[in-house]
Amino acid sequence: MFQAGLKWMFLIIGTTIGAGYASGRELWQFFGHESGLAILLFTIFFSICCYVIMDVSFNQQSSDYLPVLRDIVGDRLTKVYDVMIFLYLSTTTVIMIAGSGATGQAFNLSYWWGVLAIAISLIFLFLKDISGFLAMNQLVLPLLLGGLLYILLLFMNDQGINMLSHLDGQRNWTAAFPFTALNILPLIAVLGAIGNKVRTKTEIYIAAIGSGLILGTISFIYNSSLIQIADELLLYEIPLFAILNHYPVEILIFMSILLWFAIFTTAASGILGMVSRLQSMWNAPIWLLAALIVVAMVPLTTVGFSTLINYIYPVYGILNLYVLTRLLLYPLWNKTMKHP
Prior knowledge:
This protein is an all-alpha fold and 340 residues long. It is 77% helix and 0% strand. It has helices spanning 2-16, 19-22, 25-30, 36-60, 66-73, 75-106, 111-125, 129-159, 176-182, 184-192, 201-228, 239-244, 249-279, 286-297, 305-338. Helix 4 (36-60) runs antiparallel to helix 11, helix 9 (176-182) packs across helix 15 (305-338) and helix 10 (184-192) crosses helix 13.
């Protein structure tokens, strides 16, 4: 039971801790100075949202996100969000595949070698159905989280940083809302696919509270580190490299490999959400659907997505805030509906 809870916890973390988070870009964009309270609120909101999504998918015994979505946003908005989730998963997965190409270039390899490496790995991952994906998460994520924590704590120790020194002002507390909302849609897609595999409510508690606490703690330590080098961050596309700049090249290579795995787990989560949705309409093996999706996406990595993202992501921000509100108030309005 505990082990199953950990399995879902790593699934949640793997879906959330993509390249944007692991590289520090997302954290610095939303948090930065005066954000201690914002990160605490994010931890609480995130745990509640994960619990509600898993509880709904468990009660529905769902194998894709549609029944969960219907329960959360209602019948009228389900079609809109169904299209939006599929679009969101598609764009983020394409961006991750392109990100793998860019990582390849960082190691002086061709862009297409990087794309090919992630494409083949993603298809192989789903050969064993969903179990291969879950096993990969349990293996890779402790390494990724451990490596990230090690570097951050080493940096803080070397710089003599006191994490509690910047807790006097908390004006940025509202950042908790958009930051939590940003991470919700992919979680509905992924957790909706495993409702029929969850056995007990205890697993849900372990996964929801554990993932919130781990992500909250890492976010706080990471943000505290970035505050110390705020002036240097303008020079770096990836904030993590501003920290790694203080260490030997071997550590840079090690963390670059871990960043690639962060890209990989996010792409895999996106594909899981898409294939589980497609399987409800077309009863084909998961690996075949995964292969078709990956092959269709590879040419799209050459398209400039920055314009698309500039238009699509603000819309997602507003729609996600609505879903966040529904999730946080779900226990209340669900009770009201049952007892009018």
